[in-house]
Design goal:
CATH topology of the largest domain: Virus Head Decoration Protein, Chain: A
Strand order of the largest sheet: 1-7-4-5-6-3-2
Number of strands: 31
Strand content: 15-25%
CATH architecture of the largest domain: Beta Barrel
Oligomer: single chain
Mean pLDDT: 80
Number of domains: 6
Distance between the termini: 120 Å
Radius of gyration: 55 Å
CATH class of the largest domain: Mainly Beta
Length: about 675
């Protein structure tokens, strides 16, 4: 007697095993029954909560069956099971598949071991159906990883070590990475500000640098940082150089009075200029005293000194020329009468009428530059100037509303080369139009970009190999075509095409049409040759003399036709009557009633459904439109030879004009 013998239906538990709950039983029997129930329950729990509910049969090392009943709910997927057998031993596992046909078949993944083919006692856990992990296996460390979730299993399979951090490398797979003290110090910070402090870094915006920022020399490209000294030098070097040059000139040649303060020029000292005294130094000293040595007192220097300083300042000014180029462009634009000079680097700039006569330097190094022009309206003569500084991104000039640019209802995208200068002038016309004129463009022309291009010589145009020079009308005219040279050729007239004797002019499709409409004239020993009379490769084709003719009724393909005696239209031929026996030709394709179609008058035609004897004479049949080997024999029928079979499926069509009545 065991718990497995009890029923889940209360009324069925009347006498399970040694327990007796029948009606009208003795008190002693009831007492014994309750004592047995308590013993069964104690035995069940001491057995680890396992319960054997059915007789099971070995099926394979991982499956067993319960005969003739559907107990899939009892053996649900995920439920723990225990198997006991003399060879199997005691093993545990988790149900992965339960199926029922005539028997219930249960598949199990065992923690270890497999089923043997023997009598087995299969028990299920009394815990929930999601699986059961017994405390004994946890305490002993023998818990099999196959009973864990795939992600937990992946972590459990790792080997831990100092300064290592587990991480997932994919679904159900994991590994360990080095986790240094520096990394831990960064991760334990409460926020980004604390992490910046740990790193000794500044935020992207704000923050104060307490030390010096050391730059790697002078900037040599756009957007590179420059020191204050470098900026001051760029701004003041040109002025300093000019002032030093004037001072140097005064000290070199001024003779009428002092060159600066009480100091006189070398020339004044040399020739006795006005105010020069011996106390102010000799001419040689003033001319040649080495740099930074004073002459006739403190803070007075020679011409050599000032020349050296001027040269150094000039060199510094030259080295900053690339940075100062923007200032030069601004000065040049101002000199040309432009108003404000503005560099545009942003994505979109909207121009107003009030901005007219302003000059814009377009720098597309960081963004696509879009210029929205103002509406012209009645503002005739508005003028804007643009100069391209960088074309790393696209530059687009956008018209307003229905305004045009160079007469086109589209935007202007022709600014594609560095150095291009273009002016936009408004024309209050109908419709309003911006006249875009490229003033200068220093870049070379390519196959896809406008620019400066060298003109080709006649010899280079004729050779046709130069890919960098442009052809002019004159050099193009020099390249005349011949039988071996590609070039210009004069077109022939229709008369010249018909005559067919000119060897220097080219034919046009119109010339060929004119030739086609002329009579074909064959000279002596010439012929019209049909090179493939047997039509050996293509079904439903024909070659020969054909005509376009109007049908007086529906005509099927490959049917012989004749002329109707009253309507002058082609109809299907028939040897049964004289009016339809005068064969004119054959229709290579079907012709609808009142439609115009092709009629082969004489030539070769192929139809793979023909089945004629090669070399046989073919006649018009008494079956409408058909050809036959045998001449008609019916009295009153008409005999007309229409051609010869060149092969079983190819016929030479040449209808005879002789029609003979059979009598």
């Amino acid at each position: 007697m065991a718990v497995k013998d009890w029923s889940t239906t209360a009324s069925n538990n009347t006498a399970p095993g040694s327990v007796n709950f029948q009606e009208s039983q003795l008190p002693s029997t009831l007492n014994n029954s309750m004592r047995q129930v308590l013993a069964d329950m104690r035995t069940h729990f001491e057995n680890g909560g396992w319960i054997q509910l059915h007789t099971t049969v070995f099926a394979s090392s991982t499956t067993f069956t319960v005969a003739s009943v559907d107990v899939r709910t009892t053996y649900a997927v995920g439920r723990r099971v225990r198997a006991v057998g003399s060879s199997t031993g005691t093993i545990y596992g988790v149900i992965t598949v339960t199926a029922f046909s005539s028997n219930t078949t249960v598949t199990v993944v065992w923690d270890s071991g497999n089923l043997s083919s023997e009598t087995l006692a299969i028990s299920v856990s009394t815990q929930d159906q999601n699986g059961h992990v017994d405390a004994a296996m946890i305490l002993s460390g023998t818990l099999n990883n196959n009973r864990l979730d795939a992600d937990i299993k992946a972590i459990a399979n790792l080997t831990s070590a100092a300064d290592k951090l587990p991480y997932f490398t994919g679904s159900g797979s994991a590994d360990v990475a080095t986790f240094t003290a520096a990394g831990r110090a960064l991760l334990d910070d409460a926020n980004a500000s604390a992490q910046l402090t740990t790193l000794g870094a500044l935020p992207l915006a704000g923050g104060t640098m307490t030390g010096d920022l050391v730059l790697d020399g002078a900037p040599d490209a756009d957007l590179k940082a420059a020191t204050k000294a470098y900026v001051d030098n760029v701004a003041g070097s040109a002025t300093d150089a000019a002032a030093s040059a004037v001072t140097a000139a005064n000290f070199a040649v001024k003779v009428n009075g002092a060159a600066a303060g009480s100091d006189f020029s070398a020339k004044a000292h040399a020739i006795g200029g006005t105010g020069v005294t011996d106390a102010t130094g000799s001419a040689k000293e003033w001319a040649t005293e080495v740099e930074d040595n004073t002459v006739a007192g403190s803070n007075t220097f020679s011409a050599l000194h000032h020349s050296a300083k001027a040269a150094a300042q000039a060199t510094a000014a030259a080295s900053s020329a690339s940075t100062a180029s923007g200032h030069a462009t601004t000065a040049q634009a101002a000199a040309q009468g432009w108003g404000a000079v503005t560099t545009i680097t942003g994505a979109t700039t909207n121009l107003e009428v009030a901005d007219a006569r302003d000059y814009y330097i377009l720098d597309a190094s960081s963004n696509t530059v879009t210029i929205n022009l103002p509406a012209i309206g009645s503002s005739d003569g508005l003028l804007f100037g643009f100069q391209v500084h960088n074309v790393d991104n696209a530059i687009s000039i956008v018209r307003d509303g229905s305004d045009r640019i160079n007469g086109s209802a589209g935007n202007y995208a022709g600014l594609v080369a560095v150095g291009q200068v273009i002016n936009f002038i408004a024309d209050d016309a109908t419709p309003d139009n911006w006249l875009a004129t490229i003033i200068s463009q220093s870049s070379a022309a390519t196959a896809t970009s406008a620019g400066v291009v060298e003109l080709a010589t006649n010899a280079e145009s004729i050779a046709g190999t130069d890919a960098a020079r442009a052809v002019t009308p004159a050099s193009l005219h020099a390249k005349t075509a011949s039988a071996t040279v590609i070039g210009l050729v004069e077109l022939a007239t229709d008369a010249e095409a018909v005559t067919g004797s000119d060897t220097a002019r080219a034919l046009t499709p119109a010339n060929l049409a004119a030739v086609r409409e002329e009579n074909v004239v064959l000279s002596e020993a010439k012929s019209v040759n049909i090179s493939t009379p047997l039509l050996g490769t293509t079904d439903h084709t024909f070659t020969g003399l054909s005509a376009q003719m109007l049908a007086g009724g529906a005509i099927a393909a490959f049917k012989l036709v004749c002329i109707h005696t009253t309507t002058s239209e082609v109809v299907t031929a028939d040897a049964s009557a004289y009016a339809t026996a005068r064969v004119l030709g054959i229709a290579p394709a079907a012709i609808g009633d009142t439609a115009t179609g092709t009629v082969l008058l004489q030539g070769f035609i192929r139809d793979d459904t023909f089945n004629f004897t090669t070399g046989s004479t073919l006649y018009l049949s008494e079956t409408a439109g058909a050809m036959t080997h045998t001449a008609p024999t019916t009295d009153g029928a008409f005999v007309n030879i229409v051609g010869v079979a060149l092969s079983p499926d190819v016929v030479y069509i040449n209808p005879s004009m002789d029609v003979i009545e059979h009598a």
